[in-house]
Write a structure and sequence with these properties.
397 residues; alpha/beta; VC0802-like; Rossmann fold; nine-stranded mixed β-sheet; five-stranded parallel β-sheet; disordered C terminus; binds adenosine-5'-triphosphate; binds magnesium ion
Length: 397
Amino acid sequence: MKEIILIKNGELALKGLNRSTFEQALIKNLRRRLGEVGVFKYTAAQSTINVVPQSDDIDLDRAVEEVKKVFGVARFSRAAQAPKDIGAILDIAPVYLEKTLGSCATFKVESKRSDKSFPMTSPEISAAVGGRLLASFRNLKVNVRNPDVVVYVEIRDDYAYIHAGSVAGAGGLPVGTSGRACLLLSGGIDSPVAGYMTAKRGVSLCAVHFMSPPYTSVRAEKKVERLTEVLTAYAGDIHLYKVDFARTQELIRDLCPPELFTVISRRMMMRTATLIAEKENALALITGESIAQVASQTLSALACTEDAAGMPVLRPCIGLDKNEIVETSRKIGAFDISIEPYEDCCAIFTPKHPKTNPALADVRKAEEPLDVVSLAREAAEAAVMKKNSYIRKVELF
Ligand code: ATP
Ligand code: MG
């Protein structure tokens, strides 16, 4: 008996003319994601993608774990593939469903026939399969209103498929179908979540991390690399640019008012990240900011930050409470890394009393002693030159 994965691509089905482009992108991403598990054949029909193992030794449990991380998969199920012959379906159903049905009390069967040339109607198929399952499992009773398990029989163009229902996939859209954005990735909890949420809408990522050696350590840098690796599991390859920010921050410390240190640092981050993003053909920046979470994230502080960015700034965590961000962080496997206690460059030279509501005009004036354009350009160029990008095995989406 052959077991396959049926993928329902949900939102993609709504995309009309673009549908096949999206479907192809999803198949490409699935293929890359499952490449390490084995060779599969992918076919798309009726809003479903069939993922069919091409050898008997493929570990389908592992394949399912990978599928769960692929954006664009609304729901999926494991299913037995049977010849389109009622005798074969009746033989395979009890064997394939033994584990599921052996341990529950009630069930019903739902059949769907997209191949209308199949000689039985859907109710006839359901009745036949239901009868066979009742005969095979003495513990079972039919309950059409509220069954423990619904058994599905789908008669499609090529084969019949038998399964016990689908589970939710990662949702969203296939990465690479919505352009690219540049994530400002600190070592904290919020920015990896912001990257995950943006990738979920089909956006591919590059990332910029600002570090200030010798004030920040190599371990802090490694931590950001590991966070990037966590994100690649969902977002595909990510080029990580590590910007040496020490000189910029020293100049801000020496030449600008201390209470504006953080907001001016942020503005320099935006300018530098914009240049790197342009190099990567990214169309937006992404941050993990959430309104009023800290002093530098009040609306007036955000306005000052935004003013220095040369492209739109996406803030997918903006309306989330910390506990909601933490929940996602745990779900994607970033949390334990994010809470490791290594210093962030934002924490150095931090003033005792940062200004919570800085006025943009004051900040611009306070910045005047800095040559902001050259500083950003030099920092960005050095990061790009170093080619210290972090690239995972999976190719760029
Ligand atoms: P996070 O948990 O993402 O670090 P945070 O709550 O600590 O966020 P801040 O330190 O104020 O908030 O940073 C706000 C945002 O600015 C971060 O989410 C991130 O996008 C960006 N950022 C801060 N520090 C850095 C850094 N060292 N490198 C890159 N981006 C940074
Ligand atoms: Mg932080």
